[in-house]
Amino acid sequence: MTTTSDPTEQAGQTRPTFDSLSPVTGDVVGTHPVHSAEDVEGAVLAAREQAAWWGALGFDERATHLTTWKGVLTRRLAQLADVVHCETGKPHADAMLEAALAIDHLAWAAGKAEKHLGRRRVSSGLLMANQAATVEYRPLGVIGVIGPWNYPVFTPMGSIAYALAAGNAVVFKPSEHTPGVGEWLARTFLEAVGRPVLSVVTGLGETGAALCRAGVDKVAFTGSTGTGKRVMAACAETLTPVIVEAGGKDAVIVDHDADLDAAAEAALWGACSNAGQTCIGVERVYVHERVYDAFLDKLVALAKEVRADDTAGTHLGPITMPSQLDVIRRHIDDALARGGRALVGGADAVGERFVQPTVLVDVPEDSLAVREETFGPTVTVAKVATIEEAIERTNATAYGLGSTVFSKGRGMQIAERIRSGMTAVNGVITFAAVPALPFGGVGDSGFGRIHGPDGLREFTYAKAIARQRFKPALALTTFKRTEKADQQLQQIVTLLHGRGTTLPKLNKRVKRAGRPRG
């Protein structure tokens, strides 16, 4: 990414621009405007008008529009994958998979919004039996989405699709490394719907900060933990709520009864897919000592078959953000300097643009490669005497995003004890592809959820209504309340919440106590 200038005049001055570059060749992929704080404020103001129209539509109408957009995305799937490939360098097949999963999530959000957000009746309780109680979830208004570069379609669409389905307008600030993807999404939405309910602002970090301060009703951010803290600080100035999906240091636990072939293949794919640039990617593996050697043999054999280069059919693309190369190199060097061994890859694995798969063993638990997010195609493998030890090591991190367990007999029991927002059992990263499951972490991995019913409700506020159906037997909310009413209230509360009363008898006695007499 480089900064240039644009001859387009803005108030007598040239608008600054920046270039997105191919991480494979370094060539310019596209030139994009650097939107100023004033531009962002204007975009949010325009989005406010669109939100009024979009939010007033019924769920069916919004679903129809989103389904039309889904059709456009599907028919142009190869085109979208090409844009992703050009800006991230990832293989076309991986870009296609990412976009296809995003489309599936869009379909789910559009079809399920009414079920999970529409008005529904709730119990009013015995004390308030004369009230009809309902709750529904209404759109917040305008949502700001700040997206990452590693999955520039799938990840932001986890916020965009669900926010739109919930009735909000969206202003999307894509990563400066993948602005073309964001512009492509907004352009196709406008073509499908005819109104810019989804709009885009492009630029560097200052543009994202401006979006946080521009008066949006919520910000959904995906990126590093450090940047997430800065986003929160900027949003705090205007008391704007945030969803933060930050980094991870995800682990795989391999039990003694695991399918080792499946576990090895999953661990390698989880560690190296997208060149390891995956927040929910595998970075640590803990293997029961009874199967450690057999698992390691399988993992090493598979890893030696995977390559990262710019030839056709390559498994891995380049490291998209050049500065990450230094982080990966530092983590590998630290592991080796502290007694670790590289069974595949190693010190020479980090090139000018590409990093080869690296499998590290005998790495101390307090090393950089175990404690900090590497975000490259590397993985540490450690032997454990018991699964209890594996769980303790897995949880000994400030992060808590995703995790994986391979076990035939006790996968669920192990998964339940892992401190992470998501866990896959006998698979890897499978939870991300299930639209009905919430996606998000704990600790330094952030808070809030996208995807599923939880993801829909993140972009709404709950609207509660209590409507009186008939006059109450006990008039409690009045200054004319009598002493007799107070005594009856005390009797009812005692019956409801006192000890030693069964529910069937309680209901009959409460009804008698609250029944008008005479």
Question: C-alpha Rg, in Å?
Answer: 27 Å
Strand content: 15-25%
- Count the E strands: 19
Q: What is the name of the CATH class of the largest domain?
A: Alpha Beta
How many distinct helices?
A: 17
Strand arrangement within the widest β-sheet reads 13-14-15-12-11-16-17
For the record, the CATH architecture of the largest domain stands as 3-Layer(aba) Sandwich
CATH topology of the largest domain: Aldehyde Dehydrogenase, Chain A, domain 1
Can you tell me the CATH superfamily of the largest domain?
A: Aldehyde Dehydrogenase, Chain A, domain 1
Sheet having the most strands: 7 strands, mixed
Q: Which terms summarize this structure?
A:
Aldehyde Dehydrogenase, Chain A, domain 1; disordered C terminus; 41% helix; 518 residues; alpha/beta; 20% strand; 3 domains; Aldehyde Dehydrogenase, Chain A, domain 2; 7-stranded mixed sheet; globular
What would you note in describing this structure?
The protein folds into three domains: 36-246 and 454-462, 3-Layer(aba) Sandwich (Aldehyde Dehydrogenase, Chain A, domain 1); 250-398 and 402-437, Aldehyde Dehydrogenase, Chain A, domain 2; 478-518, no CATH class. The protein is 41% helix and 20% strand. It has 17 helices and 19 strands. Helix 14 links the parallel strand 16 (403-406) and strand 17. Helix 3 (77-88) packs antiparallel against helix 6 (179-193), helix 7 crosses helix 8 (225-236) and helix 9 (260-272) crosses helix 10. The protein is globular, with a radius of gyration of 27 Å. Residues 5-11 and 513-518 have low confidence and may be disordered.
